[in-house]
Every structure is written in C-alpha cells, then in structure tokens.
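Contributing new records

If you add data, match the layout below exactly. Sequence lines come first and carry their own label; structure lines follow with theirs. Keep one chain per record. Anything else will be rejected by the validation script.
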Amino acid sequence: MRESKIALALLGILGFVALGFLLQTLKPILLPFVVAVFLAQLFAPLNKALQRRRVPAAISVLLVLALVSGVLVLLSMVIFSSANSFKAALPTYQGRLKAMIQGISDWVGGYSPALKAQIQHWKWDESVKVSSLPGFLATTVGSFLLFFNDAFLIILFLVFLLVGSEGFPKKLRRAMPDQAERVAEVKTNIEAQVRKYLLTKTLINLVNGTTVGLLMWGFGVDFPLLWGFLTFLSHYIPNFGAIISVGVPTIFIFLQLSPGKALLVSLLNLTVQFTIGNALEPRVMGSSLNLSPLLVLVSLIFWGWLWGPWGMVLSVPITSTIKIICENVTALQPLAVLMSGDEGG
C-alpha cells in the first residue's frame, strides 16, 4: 500500500512536469487561445444584445471583431510608442539619479565626512543604473508586442468561439439527451460567473488605470499612458500588482519632479489605488474571487514562468476560472474549497 502511494505521488509529479512542458511548448497557440476565450466572455453580452436587436449573426460577430481589433491595435500602439519614448529618456534619468545620489552624499557629508567617503567608495551611482533597464524593458515590452503580433490568431479563435457558441446547445442536446439540461445549466452558471468576474475586474482596472493616467498627466509626470496601462494590467494580480503599479512609477517620479511634488504625487497615486483596490473593488466584486493568497503566489510564479509577463497578468483570471468551474461541478467542489481563501470557501 505504501509503495503504491509513493508510485502515485511520483506519477503525479511527473504528470505535473509533463503538463508544464506541454503548456510551455504550446505557448504560441495556447496563449492567444486563452486570451480569445476571455475576450469571448467579455464581448458575448454585446454580441447577444446585437442579435436581440435583430442584427444578423454574421454582422454582429463582424462588429464585435472590429471592436476587438481596434482595442488590440490601440493597445499595441500605446505600448510601442510609450516604450520607445521611455527607453530614449533613460539616459536623462540616469543623470538625474547620479545628481540625486551626489546631493545625498553632500548632505550626509555635512554631518559625517566618514559616511560620505563610504558612500562615494561604494559608487552607488554606478551600481544602481537606470540605463541598465533597457535590456529588461526590451524583454518585457518585446513579450507584449510579440503577443500583439499574434492578434490575427486571437481574432481567428474569437470568430470560432463566438460562432460556435450559438450552435453548441443543439449539439449538446443531441450528444447527451439524458443529461443535456444539467450540463447546459452547469455551463450557463460557469459562463455567467466567469463573465461577471472578468467584466467587473476589467472595468475596475480600467477606472483605476484611467484615474492614475489622468493623475500623472495632471501633474506633468512623463509617460502617463504607460503608467496608466501598467496600473490597468497589474491589478489583475491581487496584492502583488499594486506593489508594481505603485512602486515602479514612484521611482521615476522622484527622478523627474522636486522631492516635495514627487512625494505628493506618489502619495496621491498610492491613495487612489488603495481606495479603488480596498474600498471600491470589494464592494463591487464581493467575494467572487476569494482565492488563497498562497495559491495566488504559486499561480503567479507558475504562469509567469510558463508564459512570461502575459502569463503573470493572466495567472489569476485563469485560476479564478478554474475555481469557478470546480464550484459548479459536484465532483470537483472539494478542490474549490481548498482553493478558497477562507474556511467558508
């Protein structure tokens, strides 16, 4: 009995490794497909609303596709232009960092010449180089731009998902005449809950990103579109996303503005994101997420390792979708309880 349990555990580990290898190998196909599935859920209400107004199914699908294509093109243009401008400005920020460290060194030297000598000996202005970021930025931004190059594949998947969703109930009744109603009910519940989560989360993130972008623009901070877009994407990741969307802009705000103004803008940015994330979002979303913090961290690491930056952004939506599916399938409900963040599930 003990040997069989060990063998089962080893098979489970091997299966997990094989699954990871498969997901990583099929990334060029699976990543666009997963995004297409989420987009289909987001835009399905619009598609159905158009058809309720007696718009032909083919025309309604084309209208949805045109809207999705426009969004993808706009996002790719924003990322590309902002990334290029940001990269071009990095040498300027490097000079400001050097001047800031020198100023701190001079100020400290007024109180402790020995400590000033130690700071200069460490050469912080050389070891902490803003100009060393282009390599990281090139990798990260390149991942996003390569993803947008797959927009055709996303649109192709989206076409089949939107068109196929219309005829699926009929196929289900023919394939499973005895259990069709139960399966259709489970499918409807899963789609409704996933759609509610995705729509609500996306709208809240849009409000958050837009507010941060306007705040940065109002105070004359460089690259407000970039910081707004970073906030929008980061807040798909609970807790950890807020650290990124507040911490990264703060560094560059202090390198651009005077200390007093930079502190004010950073505090306002923190206040806005804290208020939306901890006051508005829980009221709107309720307990629809309720994932274990440890599960969120493991999911972030796992999907980030597999699919890079986009994997990190999609990690929590994927995990939330899996939990919703488990909640609606009787045999998988214990797994949903284990995935929840508290004893109530």
